[in-house]
Amino acid sequence: MSRAGRAGPGVVGGYGGCAVLLKMDDSETDFNLKVIMVNFKQCLNEKEEILMDHYLSGWWGLVKFLNSLGAIFAFISKDVVAKLQIMERLRGSPHGEHYASLQSMVAYEVGHQLVDLQRRSRHPDSGCRTVLRLHRALRWLQLFLEGLRTSPENAHTSTLCTDSYNASLAAYHPWVIRQAVTVAFYALPTRKVFLEAMKVGPPEQAIAMLDEALPFLERVYDIVQKLYAEHTLLDLP
């Protein structure tokens, strides 16, 4: 199935070796979270610029992970897919070289006034706005995975996910959506099921992988947060 058939409205936000670019049209079952996290490490170059191709590839992998957990996360993954499609169209456009990194994208769009700063009008799907939505969603996933890593075996995943959501995406959703999402989280599987869904081995291996991988995810988040703050882009409509 092509990516074009996946878009729709939504409500978003041990490594080394050669690059691994994971796309949504790869096998839905042929992945593990460790491979996905490689992209988030490799999306940072020596200047700590965020390379767009690896950033998007990492996100396609995270969508696979969310989809593997069932329909509960559809409210996020569906919107993420739509945002990824926007970014891939920009990357493949005649101006695609300006979207090679997040830093070059911001410089290009801000410098050429291609970002709607006050309200959505002439540039409703700018790269800056689109990545901001992905950025917010990445914060929720980062917090949730960190909660899974540090919580005891008997921790309630509904509580972990709700706390992560309230600390990230909830601020950008209306009350009705917040209530529906919170109720949906009560149907989440156990912590053990989540760790096994990462497909890196038994739960203790998944915990070790998260211990090593999450700092890279956090670093990517922090760099985007700082860049957007410097250009007053954190509250784009």
Can you put this structure into words, describing what you see?
The longest helix is centred in the C-terminal third of the chain and has 28 residues, at 203-230. The radius of gyration is 17 Å and the shape is globular. It contains nine helices and no strands. With 237 residues, it is mainly α.
Features:
237 residues; mainly alpha; 9 helices
Write a compact overview of the structure shown.
The chain is mainly α.
Proportion of strand residues: under 5%
Mean pLDDT: 84
Q: Using the alpha-carbon principal axes, give the shape.
A: globular
Uncertain segments: 1-11, 13-29
Provide the helix percentage.
Answer: 55-70%
Sheet of most strands: none
**Number of β-strand runs:** 0
